[in-house]
Design goal:
heterodimer, A: about 210 residues, B: Beta-Lactamase, 5-stranded mixed β-sheet, 10 strands
Chain lengths: ~210, ~325
């Protein structure tokens, strides 16, 4: 399958932008818990939706892994469904680390789900906000929604069609020596993809012009 | 906007205003300068601030405690970035000074809150934002109950079968929790390692049943000395016990250890084969304290308490010793 590719320059620019975004999110979360929270985006990739579902589903022969997701819809300079996703056990770990209190239950309680939504809201708004600032365009966002299920179910529930492309950010989350890997997926259709690429190139041109 | 065609425009506006005032959640609207444009009935009822005090005023003059915090950041996100924010009760403990009743207000018991801050586009004016506050007190209470009952169930797998006090697993979980709490709260944390002196000789001489009884008696007596709910005594291994003492500095811990040592001695359990001159069951205690300005790893704290215990044993038993982690 032919994939939408970014040049190395475009790729580096996006990784840098997202690292600024998650850095701000980490600072906000540190302020909430009064402890050092670190976040980074080591890499990004563009993959077809079906492949994204497989990547997130893990390789468990017992069936696809259960994922917790927090989604928000954004529109403006480009339109996307942004979804923060962690394997369910990792989301339990994150919320309980953030809350500083462990509840020995296998699923997030209603209040914990809300806390997870807030964490997602902070991370997604920071990522998209940094993009919007750098693209010099405003975007509108919806309030976060909580999902739990297989990655395929979550991608479907957030309204992404089978032919969409996913910009996948690998996220490292570090709190109290616990390192947790997760993903932020930006689901894009073909026109959104071109809008995004156009914006990146405008940014690069501006950055080069100023250099 | 939803269809309200039947009414003329000014009536629609009046109706919308009435609805916003009547809804059973807190609604505040701020203009682009963060002045209060709307403060609904629910807010009046629970804040005690009337419309004439709130409307037109600077939001942070009315709610000074919120400046610089999460609510402030969320308002900025809405006004300047056009993004909505969610503030969960779990991560933001009741930011607004809102009370269910005058009695609750007198007790300073705030309504538990979930807060949403959303941008509102206004024709011909800079963007406004809507702050919605939902009372989640019932859900919070329900989860507290759930958590407590789960903890009760869990505590049954967390106690030592012989002595009935906390087991090693419980110790590990409690230690993890208290260690974090001490770091977050900037408080000292002390750990005592308590070992019954010459217990093998006791077992050999009196038999295992008597040995078990001795363990039960010592464990019950020492655990009974802990008065605060956060203190924990656990059976750490064979005849060794550990005591977690949060918010306890090295002086307080030393005092406590000495009292415990005296209490064990005071039980006056005969021990013919004790090499100490008392011919009674005694304990040695190692003390380690994590200071506020020098947090260490849990292993280092346990290691220091172990070393201190070894020091107390070597110095002749029936005594306490402290070591720095």
């Amino acid at each position: 399958m032919s994939m939408f590719d970014l040049s190395e320059l475009e790729n580096d620019a996006l990784v840098e932008i997202f690292n600024i975004g998650v850095g701000q999110a980490a600072a906000s979360m540190s302020a909430i818990v009064h402890e050092a929270v670190r976040m980074s985006v080591p890499s990004i990739s563009f993959i077809p939706r079906a492949e994204a579902a497989r990547l997130l589903g893990g390789r468990d022969p017992a069936g696809p892994e259960r994922i917790c997701g927090v989604s928000q819809h954004y529109q403006g300079a480009f339109e996307t469904e942004a979804i923060l996703m962690f394997p369910e056990d990792k989301s339990l770990e994150i919320v309980r680390l953030m809350v500083g209190e462990s509840v020995p239950l296998k699923e997030l309680t209603e209040m914990e789900q809300e806390a997870m939504c807030e964490i997602g809201n902070i991370i997604l708004n920071s990522c998209v906000g940094t993009l919007a600032n750098i693209f010099q365009h405003e975007l509108q966002g919806s309030l976060p929604q909580y999902h739990v299920g297989t990655s395929d179910e979550i991608l479907t529930a957030t309204g992404s069609g089978a032919d969409t492309v996913v910009l996948m950010l690998h996220i490292d989350f570090l709190l109290e020596k616990h390192q947790i890997h997760g993903y932020v997926a930006f689901v894009l259709d073909i026109s959104a993809l071109h809008d995004l690429k156009g914006q990146i190139n405008l940014y690069i041109a501006r950055a080069m012009g100023q250099a | 906007m939803t269809a309200m065609h039947a009414l003329p425009a000014h009536d629609q506006l009046a109706l919308l205003r009435s609805i916003l005032c009547a809804v059973n959640i807190g609604a505040i609207v701020l203009d682009g300068e963060r002045r209060i444009v709307l403060w609904n009935e629910w807010m009046i009822r629970h804040s005690g601030l009337t419309q004439d005090k709130a409307v037109g005023a600077d939001f942070f003059a009315v709610c000074p405690g919120l400046r610089g915090g999460r609510v402030d950041a969320a308002i900025q996100q809405a006004l300047y970035n056009n993004f909505p924010s969610l503030l969960s009760q779990t991560l933001n403990k009741a930011p607004f000074a809102l009370y269910a009743s005058a009695l609750a207000a007198a007790r300073h018991e705030r309504i538990q809150q979930a807060v949403e801050v959303t941008p509102i586009a206004v024709d011909g004016a800079p963007r406004h934002c809507l702050i919605q506050i939902t009372d989640v007190s019932i859900a919070v209470a329900r989860e507290k109950l759930l958590r407590e009952q789960t903890m009760v169930l869990r505590s049954q797998t967390f106690s030592d079968g012989l002595t009935g006090i906390a087991n090693r697993r419980h110790f590990d979980v409690a230690m993890e929790k208290e260690h974090r709490r001490a770091k977050r709260g900037g408080t000292p944390l002390s750990l005592l390692m308590i070992d019954i002196d010459h217990f093998k000789a006791y077992n050999d001489h009196y038999g295992h049943q008597k040995g078990d009884q001795c363990l039960i008696q010592v464990a019950a007596a020492l655990a009974g000395m802990l008065k605060r709910p956060c203190d924990l005594m656990a059976r750490y291994g064979g005849e060794e016990f550990a005591m977690i003492l949060p918010e306890t500095d090295v002086e307080q811990a030393t005092l406590m250890a000495e009292t415990i040592r005296a209490r064990a001695h005071g039980l006056a359990i005969p021990h013919e084969r004790s090499a100490t001159d008392t011919r009674q069951v005694t304990v040695s205690i190692g003390i380690a304290t994590q200071k506020v300005d020098a947090p260490v790893e849990i292993d280092a704290l346990i290691g220091a308490a172990d070393r201190a215990l070894y020091q107390a044993k070597r110095a002749g038993r029936n005594r306490t010793a402290a070591q720095l982690p």
